[in-house]
From TrEMBL:
The keyword Membrane applies. Residues 1-22 are annotated as: Disordered. It holds the Pfam family Abhydrolase_6. PANTHER family: ALPHA_BETA-HYDROLASES SUPERFAMILY PROTEIN, HYDROLASE, ALPHA/BETA FOLD FAMILY PROTEIN, EXPRESSED-RELATED. This is AB hydrolase-1 domain-containing protein. Keywords: Membrane, Transmembrane, Transmembrane helix. Residues 98-360 form the AB hydrolase-1 domain. InterPro entries: AB_hydrolase_1, AB_hydrolase_fold. SUPFAM superfamilies: alpha/beta-Hydrolases (SSF53474). The chain crosses the membrane at residues 29-50.
Length: 375
């Protein structure tokens, strides 16, 4: 047939042609899309991680969405408020005026010394005590700029506004006891005497031998070792670490029974009186209360207590440290060493006592009488 060409196509050629057609028609991803997707994934995970480690904002007492103010407060120079509670004889009739500092996860109502001191002793010695919510606790405003020094200036300003006079006593328990070192460093001229009861020790204070610090550190429960390590090295992770669900956070804050000595366990029923106000302790938020406490207490300090010189060289006041040799929260090894390095400290080690030693029968009487009649 004119103009026609007969061509025979083999089956193999036909299959090859079909494969090429399919290959040419397959979907092609734009160049670099995997790199772009990886970058997007990293950004997304970073955004999630950032949100996860951010603590929720504080609910300030007295603000529209915050808890109510139920007790007296003073206003500090920087605008913050400190809530306080007065105990004992009337201030104007007092022979001895004491500022009491509560421990971690506590508030002004946890005034162990006045709460467990006999009325007879209070009256006979003319004792007035003021306890206050440390920043972020109870009804005291948080202090995001809190430092070791700022606690001492807060105490001094509280004393001035309440008219406690030029000199007053300070007693602190646990983390509150640790704060007393700040008073001895920055406002010793205002201190008539000081008692540190089971004070928390920072494992990174200069002057503590590394082998001794490591030995004491290893005596903590494993979750607490991690919790204090995080608060020291990565304080911005403290809230996340103690609230995430994969690994256990601080067993102290969780009030694990393993943190208490045998004597502590016998004393625990005395803490039932906290139930009516326990909800007030963290009501403004956990970060600016308990976790700020950890970050400051176990952070890098502006000074080391072991470097302090005797603030009362003429015996115008005395400093007492009380500690139980069965304390499972603050290893006694470090307290002994600090007392050895500071010979002007009156060190009292109580055999068989745990961290709750001031709640043991008769201990408040002993602590207060030693403070007020010595120096």
């Amino acid at each position: 047939m004119a103009g026609g060409v007969n061509r025979k196509i083999s089956a193999a050629s036909a299959r090859a042609h079909t494969r090429r057609a399919k290959q040419n028609s397959s979907f092609q991803l734009p160049a670099g899309i995997f790199k772009t997707a990886l970058v997007a994934l990293v950004i997304g995970l970073s955004a999630w991680a950032y949100q996860a480690i951010q603590p929720p904002p504080s609910k300030i007492c007295g603000s529209p969405d915050g808890p109510p103010v139920t007790g007296p407060r003073i206003k500090l120079r920087d605008g913050r408020h400190l809530a306080y509670q007065e105990h004992g004889v009337p201030k104007d009739n007092a022979q001895h005026k004491i500022v009491y500092l509560h421990g971690i996860d506590s508030c002004r109502h946890d005034a162990v010394i006045p709460n467990f001191l006999s009325p007879e002793t209070v009256k006979d010695l003319g004792i007035y005590v003021v306890s206050f919510d440390r920043p972020g606790y109870g009804e005291s405003d948080p202090n995001p700029k809190r430092t070791v020094k700022s606690m001492a200036t807060d105490i001094e300003e509280l004393a001035d506004q309440l008219g406690l006079g030029h000199r007053f006593y300070v007693i602190g328990f646990s983390m509150g006891g640790q704060v007393i070192w700040s008073c001895l460093k920055y406002i010793p001229h205002r201190i008539a005497g000081a008692a540190l009861v089971a004070p928390v020790v920072n494992y990174w204070w200069t002057g503590i031998p590394s082998n001794l610090s490591s030995q004491a550190y290893s005596q903590q429960l494993q979750p607490d070792q991690w919790a204090v390590r995080v608060s020291h090295y990565t304080p911005w992770l403290t809230y996340f670490w103690n609230t995430q669900k994969w690994f256990p956070g601080s067993s102290v804050l969780a009030q694990s029974i393993d943190c208490f000595s045998d004597q502590d366990k016998e004393i625990l029923p005395k803490l039932q009186k906290r139930e009516p106000y326990a909800g007030q302790v963290r009501q403004q938020g956990e970060f600016e209360s308990i976790y700020r406490d950890m970050n400051v207490g176990f952070g890098t300090w502006e000074f080391s207590p072991l470097e302090l010189e005797n603030p009362f060289p003429n015996n115008e006041a005395s400093v007492h440290v009380w500690h139980g040799d069965e304390d499972r929260m603050v290893p006694v090894l470090l307290q002994r060493y600090i007392a050895e390095q500071l010979p002007w400290i009156h060190y009292h080690e109580i055999p068989g006592a745990g961290h709750l030693l001031p709640l043991a029968d008769g201990m408040c009487e002993t602590i207060v009488k030693a403070l007020l009649t010595d120096g």
